[in-house]
Every structure is written in structure tokens, then in C-alpha cells.
Write a structure and sequence with these properties.
It comes from Pedobacter alluvionis. With 306 residues, the protein is an alpha+beta fold. The chain contains twelve helices and ten strands. The protein is elongated. It starts with 5 loop residues before the first strand and ends with a helix.
């Protein structure tokens, strides 16, 4: 992908032009009929970076959709979320005679100025999920989302006045609230696959901490763990939080403390040597973490076995 041309869209109008759409009716907010999108290029794969948020609801996706390295038959009600400065890449099949349908909602960050949403939008972690971690919805859930999208469109179609921005922002906040709820539901309904991911997390960490090369590699990071699972760090964090109540970092620390306890109770290695073997540059950092998690120091833990 690094060799491919990346388009850059600073405005919603620029995206409209590239997509063969008429000029947007509002410069900072636009709801697009996905079936009307016709990218103005002969390329089979296009990549772009956009300077605005987009929320996509795509229906009638032909074939299967790859989701976190798993195949699913969810052909309808598929949502994706893209934040400004993220790179999007899609493959175009010029031989297809049927077009997908659905909607694309674009919101420029300038529209959020002087609203609470400018501060709170970053808490919606699904804007940091990869496209293969999209949200799948039931028919009922989809109807709720479409209703809100249409309300947003109706509002910017109306005569714009001093209430327009607040009303649209309230609708966007409602939309994001429902999406947050639906993602939580998705973590639960995909329980079998998600618990398989949890088992893989344990296995990856177990292998990592048993590696003799740990001294050179240092302690594992959330980014490393996510990459091993072909997930984005945000998605993995949300999934683990929903399944266990703990963050990715907490899972890493718990495994680290488990290994530390094993070494403290079964070897004569010094605390400094154990810290070094577990990938810490400084034994003080290790001791501080150990005490924060166990309420006692490594030496106090060792003494309890004597």
C-alpha cells in the first residue's frame, strides 16, 4: 500500500467530487446515499486520508466480510467509523453489476466547535477500530440508526438557523450512544470467538514471558499483543474490558506478576536479576509495579515462603 497513491480530502466537498456526487448541501455535514457513490478513477484499489469523521452503514455487501481474521455471514447492517487523519483503503470490483446500498455520514471537525462533542468524541474508541472490526447490526438496530441519520439530513435540509448546530449535534451524540451500546452487544453475541481471543491473549503472553530473549525485547506492549491477534489496540482493549473488566495493560501486568511470583518462590535469583529477566531496565520500576499489584514488595513476597 505504501507504493500506492493516497488521495487527501481536506473537505467533504472534495470527497463528493471524487465520489461522483453533487456538491454537499452543507459544507460541514453531509449524508450520502452509498448506492450513488461512483469513484472517479480506473484504479482497482484506492486509498485516501480524510480530514473529517465518517460513519458508514453499508448493506447488501456481496460475499463474506472478514472480521478479525474470522469469516461471518453478516451481509447487512455493517457499520464502520473513520476519524480524521486515518488512511482508508478499499478494493473496487469493476465487474460487479449490483451496487451496495446504505449511507455515509460525514462530519467535519469544524462543525463540533463550541460544543461538548468536541471534547467527548475521542472517548468513542470505535473510531480507532480497523475496518475489519466493523459493527454488525440486527434489522431492528439498523432501523434505529437509519432513523437518526435521516433526522440529521432533515435538519440540515431545513432553513439553517441558530438552533441547527445544536440539534444536529444532539442527533450525532444519540447515534454514537447507540453505536456504543451495539458494540457492547456484539462483544457478548460473539462470545465464543471472543473467548477464543481471550485464550490466545493468555497463550501469547505465556510464550512471551517464557522467551529467553525477553531481556532484549523488554516487556510486551498492548500494541504488540494486538498485532499478534490481527486486531487494533483499541478494539482489543474494548473487547477485554467487556469480557473481563480489565484493560489490555492489566492483562499484561497480571501475567508479568504471575511470572515474577514464580521466579521469587522457586529460584534464588535476586530481585534485580528477576526484573532484568522480565524485561525491565530498572529493578526499581519492577519493584514499584509488583507492590502496586500485590500490596507487598518482592522481598516480602519471597520471605512469606521461608
Amino acid at each position: 500500500m505504501s507504493n500506492k497513491h493516497i488521495y487527501r480530502f481536506n473537505s467533504i466537498a472534495e470527497f463528493h467530487k471524487m465520489s461522483g456526487l453533487p456538491k454537499p448541501e452543507h459544507p460541514l455535514v453531509s449524508l450520502v446515499d452509498y448506492g450513488m457513490v461512483a469513484y472517479q478513477t480506473n484504479e482497482t484499489e484506492i486509498s485516501w486520508m480524510q480530514n473529517f469523521y465518517s460513519i458508514g452503514l453499508k448493506r447488501n455487501i456481496e460475499g463474506k466480510f472478514k472480521y478479525g481474521q474470522q469469516q461471518y455471514d453478516f451481509d447487512e447492517g455493517l457499520m464502520t467509523f473513520v476519524a480524521p487523519k486515518q488512511v482508508v483503503s478499499i478494493t473496487l470490483d469493476k465487474t460487479k453489476t449490483t451496487k451496495p446500498s446504505g449511507f455515509l455520514l460525514f462530519i467535519h471537525p469544524d462543525f463540533l466547535w463550541n460544543t461538548n462533542l468536541v471534547k467527548t468524541i475521542s472517548k468513542y474508541e470505535f473510531f480507532g477500530y480497523k475496518v475489519n472490526e466493523a459493527l454488525f447490526m440486527s434489522e431492528k438496530e439498523e432501523a434505529v440508526i437509519i432513523d437518526i441519520l435521516k433526522n440529521i439530513q432533515r435538519e440540515y435540509h431545513s432553513a439553517i438557523d441558530k438552533f441547527t448546530q445544536n440539534i444536529i449535534i444532539a442527533q450525532v451524540e444519540q447515534l454514537l450512544g447507540y453505536c456504543e451500546r451495539f458494540y457492547q452487544r456484539q462483544f457478548i453475541t460473539r462470545a465464543k470467538t471472543n473467548h477464543q481471543i481471550l485464550a490466545k491473549v493468555e497463550s501469547i503472553l505465556e510464550n512471551y514471558f517464557n522467551d529467553d530473549n525477553l531481556i532484549n525485547k523488554g516487556t510486551p506492549t498492548a500494541q504488540y499483543l494486538a498485532e499478534q491477534l490481527h486486531l487494533s489496540p483499541n478494539y482489543l482493549g474494548s473487547l477485554l474490558k467487556a469480557l473481563t473488566g480489565n484493560s489490555t495493560q492489566t492483562h499484561i501486568h497480571e501475567k508479568l506478576i504471575e511470572k515474577a511470583k514464580e521466579k521469587l518462590s522457586t529460584t534464588n535469583l535476586s530481585v534485580s536479576e528477576i526484573a532484568y529477566e522480565l524485561g525491565f531496565e530498572h529493578s526499581q520500576s519492577f519493584s514499584k509495579l509488583f507492590k502496586s499489584k500485590t500490596k507487598i514488595s518482592p522481598l516480602e513476597f519471597r520471605a512469606s515462603f521461608n
